[in-house]
Structures are given as C-alpha cells and as structure tokens.
Amino acid sequence: MALRKVSHVSEADHQRVTDAVAAAEAHTDGEIVTVIARQSNDYDDVALVWASAIAFLAMSLVALCPEFFRAKYDWLTGGWGHELTANEWLGIVIGLGALKWIGVWLVLLWRPLRLALTPRAVKAGRVRARAIDLFKVGTEAKTLGRTGVLLYVSLKEHRADIVADEAIASKVAPTVWGEAMEALIDRIRAGEPGAGMAEAVTRMGAVLAEHFPKSDGNPNELPDRLIEL
Prior knowledge:
4 strands; membrane; Putative membrane protein; transmembrane helix; transmembrane
C-alpha cells in the first residue's frame, strides 16, 4: 500500500501561494519559485560535537578533582577496594568519558532536542546553504534573462531565505528583501506559513516589477506552484 505524503501546508495555502506568484509575475519579467521544507539539515554533526564536549568535560573533572572521585570510589566499594594504580585510574577516566559520549549521543538522537541545542548561526547557515543548492538546481540560469528568484522556507528552523539569479542580484541588494522576509517570518512564527509566503511573494513582486517590468511576449518559464520537500 502506498504511503500518503505528509503535507507541510494545506491545499488552501498551496493555492494562496500559487495565486500570489501568478499575480506578482503579471507585472514583471521576474520569475518567482517557492519552496517549503520541513527541515534543512539533520544536524548530526551537532550531536557529535555535544557528545564529545561533554565527554571531555567529564574526563577533565576527574583529572582536576582526583581526591573527590577517589572518595566516591571508596564509598562505592565500602572501603574494601584495592588501591587503584595510575593505569587503572586512566582506564576508569577513559571509560567514564566513553559512557558519557554514548549517553549524550543517544539522547540527542531525539531530533527536537538536537535542533534546540543547535546554535542559531549554524541553523541560519544550513538553511542558506540548502536554499543555494535548490536555487542552483531549479532556478539559476533557467530563464532567458536570468531573472529567476527563489523563496525558500524551512519550518523547523523558523528560517527562510531568498536567492536571486544574476540579473536580479546585480540590481537588487539582499537587504531590499528584508521587508518580505520580515513579513514571512512573523507569519511562520504565528503558525501561518502559507499566508506568510503569499505575503512575501507579493512584496517580492513589487520589487521585481520596479526593476524588471513586464515586457511583451515574456513567457512563464518557471512553475508558479508551491513546491514541498
């Protein structure tokens, strides 16, 4: 039996975004591509960094406070344990570090926690990298005038990005898209990604119409529909 694909937004949101793209492109030669994804990266390397850092911290504490941990050892053995050699202590320290590493790594297999412990700058960088990858595959140099622009939304990170083709980037500074991005992020945080994307597309269309007004015979070269990943 075929599995049903889980949608990030409703059919009404799909139509809202599609209509916004069509309306925006009616006044410009620019081509707007919209993409929405659940998450841009698994952040497996973040789990490895956290596990390694905590394991190192645990081993460092044993090295810095050996008497405290020797007392704990004596308490656990009831005072009947033999005096540990330096090599045996080293083995215990390494074993403690390994257990800490495995424990933290297992806990961080839970994706929401792993995402929460990922620095904001890292998430922003991964979303940007994903947006650029998608732009290169589906938008870059796909129009005759190099007037394609990608609006990418990554829901779990609460991040979005706009990547423009050569002709647009030469005339429109990245900061110009700030108003569209602000409107989009506000709506995403309010749980309305579809409405946010539609509003951002409208504002992007206004910018494109100013710099690339509609010319006669300009074809619709890129899809208007919202793409889900």
